[in-house]
Amino acid sequence: MMHSGPIRNVDRISVPLTTDVQIEIKQVKALGSTTGWLIWPVSTHLCKFIFNNPSMFAGKKVLEFGSGTGLVGIACNIAGAELTLLTDLFEGLPMCQENVNFNRTSLKSNSKLVVEELFWGNKDHMQSILTEYGEMNVLIGSDVIYHQSPEALAALVDSIVAMSNPNTTFVLAYEYRECMIEDEMYFFSPLRPHFRHVVQFNTEHPDRWIYVYSGFIH
């Protein structure tokens, strides 16, 4: 799946994770945002990264910001995560849960997959998650900073920091677009001082990258 943008004219897409495993994902063109709950191409690169780096996710507690369709979180479960939390705005949770249910036969029976509401910057939501599930090992986000306001990006940075600990890794799938300057100003620059290490991995597409942040500093 190497498209320049999401395939908007279909309601369900088959996404191969490995040569033996593929999942079926429902998407919605418009659900409370201009981008909608769609499969954006960079998310498929993140799925491939997950399966190419199993030790980063297997047996770990993973929280995904802005899960949307649930594609990447479902991939984490199939890759062996101990716990995967798919989080998004309240109005997107039913579709995310529907995709989890639809792919139930492909999910790991000994791994927990949960859909939870998380409004970025909402301290009550974050504290509830930490109380219920404990500290996270891995935080992930796929194309979550595209078309976001400065306030939303600041809230996302605050949420990443609040959900991190010294053993947390944050993995971001990102596509370079015309809004790179704003992304740098309101997201990358504020986030960078909170992690000692940032490694950038290329993908098959020259404008799509995977960033891995580690060595959290509060």
Query: Which CATH class is shown?
Result: Alpha Beta
Mean pLDDT: 91
Unreliable stretches covering 5 or more consecutive residues: none
| Gross geometry | globular
Structural class: alpha/beta
- Number of DSSP strand runs: 9
Enumerate how many helices there are, as a single number. 6
CATH architecture: 3-Layer(aba) Sandwich
The secondary-structure element order is: EEHEHEHEHEHEHEE
The name of the CATH topology is: Rossmann fold
| Radius of gyration computed on alpha carbons | 16 Å
Distance between the termini: 37 Å
Major sheet: 7 strands, mixed
The tally of structural domains comes to 1
What proportion of the residues form beta strands (DSSP E)?
25-35%
Question: Your description of this structure?
Answer:
The chain has 218 residues and is an alpha/beta fold. It has a single domain, classed as Rossmann fold. Helix content is 30%, strand content 26%. It contains six helices and nine strands. Strands 5-4-3-6-7-9-8 form a seven-stranded mixed beta sheet, sandwiched between helices. The chain has a two-stranded antiparallel sheet with strand order 1-2. The longest helix is centred in the C-terminal third of the chain and has 13 residues.
Q: Helices and strands in order, then pairings?
A:
Layout: E1 12-16, E2 22-26, H1 41-52, E3 61-65, H2 71-78, E4 83-88, H3 93-102, E5 112-117, H4 123-133, E6 138-142, H5 150-162, E7 169-175, H6 180-191, E8 195-202, E9 208-216
Parallel strand pairs: 3-4, 3-6, 4-5, 6-7
Antiparallel strand pairs: 1-2, 7-9, 8-9
Helix pairs in contact: 1-2, 5-6
